[in-house]
Amino acid sequence: MRHLLTTESLDRATIEGLLDEADGFADVLVRPIPKVPALRGKTVAMMFFEPSTRTRLSFEKAAKSLSADTMTFSPSTSSLSKGESLKDTVLTVRAMGVDLMVVRHKATGAPWRIADWLDIPVVNGGDGAHQHPTQALLDCLTIRQRFDSLEGLNIAIVGDIRNSRVARSNIFAMTTLGANVMLVGPPTLLPIDPENWPVTVHHHIDEVLDRADVVYLLRVQTERGGGSGFPSASEYTQRFGMTAERFRRLKDEAIVMHPGPMNRGVEIGNDVADNERALILQQVSNGVASRMAVLFRLLEGQHDI
Q1: What span, in angstroms and rounded, lies between the C-alpha atoms of 257 and 98?
Q2: What is the tens place of the pLDDT at every residue in 177-196?
Q3: Chain center to CA of 114
Q4: Are 71 and 44 in contact (CB under 8 A)?
């Protein structure tokens, strides 16, 4: 069965192929009628057991731009509140004629279990603090559009890395594409075993500013305990925030990225967030194109991921 659950298992050719397809779909999205009939007759279910704005709406837009139908699941109004199990919930939705499920869940590994239960493709829309593969694809697409390639780029991922599924997915995708990834954060917000990852580790953002081509800022995951990893928001900003002063010290061609939602004034300054070299809205746009590429590859039946 073909799924997209993690970036760890993706080789360079697969990632680059998906990015090439996403570039093509980005062109579709700027047409007067931003739609193609590639997945007409298919149905995509959005199984979001955690709140989401960008990812859920992006997948819905991607599916509809490919002419697929969509179904949106809401746990608060589902039979889960009556005691129905996760397995029975997804099997019930599958029985309605769904062709692919996008799953977001707070439990690490939940999309893998669901993939085991189903006979259709499953896309991981984020599981706990573990993986978020389509975010990594859209981020790599955004960087590639600016620099043509990730080969040899120095990418600093800054902030709450320990609790970030975005960081984990990006580390594997970006290094597979040839980038040098630097993790920047206090020890309390770094992975327990960073020596087992293909990265270098730094404890102050000022250590990497002079050589970073990309500074990728992460929100502190307070809902997963990240807020206990430092004394105060002001101290976090002092040591790890992308302030206007730090932004001026970057190389002229360097860019700033953020997966959203942003905490302006904490990890990123207002002036930086609104600067043309902060590609945050371009990331959002590329999210639709990247997810179109994933849905197309999984559902049109000729390729595996």
Answers
A1: 34
A2: 999 999 999 898 998 888 88
A3: 20
A4: yes
What domains can be seen in the chain, in order of their start residue?
A: 12-131+284-299 (3.40.50.1370), 133-279 (3.40.50.1370)
Specify whether the CB–CB gap between 188 and 207 falls below 8 A. Answer: no
Q: What angle do CA 51, 53, 54 make, to 5 degrees?
A: 130
In the chain (305 residues long), the average pLDDT of successive 10-residue segments reads 90 97 96 96 96 93 98 75 83 96 96 96 96 98 98 97 95 98 93 89 95 95 51 84 97 97 92 97 97 96 62
Q: What integer pLDDT is reported at residue 24 of this predicted model?
A: 96
149, two tokens: 């390639």
Instruction: Name the residue type at position 232.
Output: S
Measured on CA atoms in the order 109, 113, 114, 116, is the torsion positive or negative? positive
Which is it for strands 69-73 and 43-48: parallel, antiparallel or unpaired? parallel
68-83 pLDDT, tens digit per residue, is: 999 998 776 666 666 7
Q: With contact defined as beta carbons under 8 Å apart, do 152 and 128 qualify?
A: no
100-105/255-257 β-pairing: unpaired
> Within 13 Å of residue 262, how many CA atoms lie on the same side as its CB?
22
- Residue 261, preceding peptide bond in cis (omega within 30° of 0): yes
Collect all residues with Cβ–Cβ distance below 8 Å to 226 and sequence separation of at least 6: 160, 162, 163, 189, 220
Question: H-type helices in 36-160, by residue range?
Answer: 54-65, 86-95, 110-117, 133-147
**221 by DSSP, 3-state: which?**
coil
Q: Are the C-beta atoms of 174 and 115 separated by less than 8 Å?
A: no
For 215-243, write each residue's pLDDT tens digit.
999 987 655 444 455 557 888 899 999 99
pTM: 0.93
Handedness of CA 214, 170, 297, 93 (dihedral sign): negative
